[in-house]
Amino acid sequence: MKRCTLMLLGLLAVSAAWAHGHAGPIDDSMPDAQKIRFCERVRDHALQAFYNRDRGRPMKLFDEDGSDGARITNHIIKRIYEEPQISSPKKAEAFGRATCNEMMGTKQPAE
Questions:
Q1: How many C-beta atoms surround the C-beta of residue 60 within 10 A?
Q2: How many C-beta atoms surround the C-beta of residue 18 within 10 A?
Q3: Neighbour count for residue 110 (Cβ, 10 Å)
Q4: 108 contact partners, CB below 8 Å, separation of at least 6
Q5: Local confidence band at 20 (pLDDT 50, 70, 90 cut-offs)
Q6: What is the 3-state secondary structure (H, E, C) of the chain?
Q7: How do residues 83-106 score in pLDDT, each as one tens digit?
Q8: Distance in angstroms (rounded) separating the CA atoms of residues 56 and 33
């Protein structure tokens, strides 16, 4: 009985890890590999901005130095603070990823 329960818990853990929804490894020979990785990091910033907004913390923006990275990330953070429709972590991640991909002109990676 203990062995069966342990096996069941193991299978649940493995299935939860597989279903987490992250893209697989990105081949560096892809022309958009760096853009895709950048948008994954921006997605993380969008999620953090969502949590900061929900906790009533002030908006944390990056110093704009003329680069696309700071401009795109700041745009996404500002929109998350302005848009009440972004009401869950999933929506914040999806918004961050989609906006970044649109602004960078990347194709969505095959999952």
A1: 11
A2: 8
A3: 6
A4: 101
A5: very low
A6: CHHHHHHHHHHHHHHHHHCCCCCCCCCCCCCCHHHHHHHHHHHHHHHHHHHHHHCCCCCCCCCCCCCHHHHHHHHHHHHHHHCCCCCCHHHHHHHHHHHHHHHHCCCCCCC
A7: 989 999 999 999 999 999 888 876
A8: 35
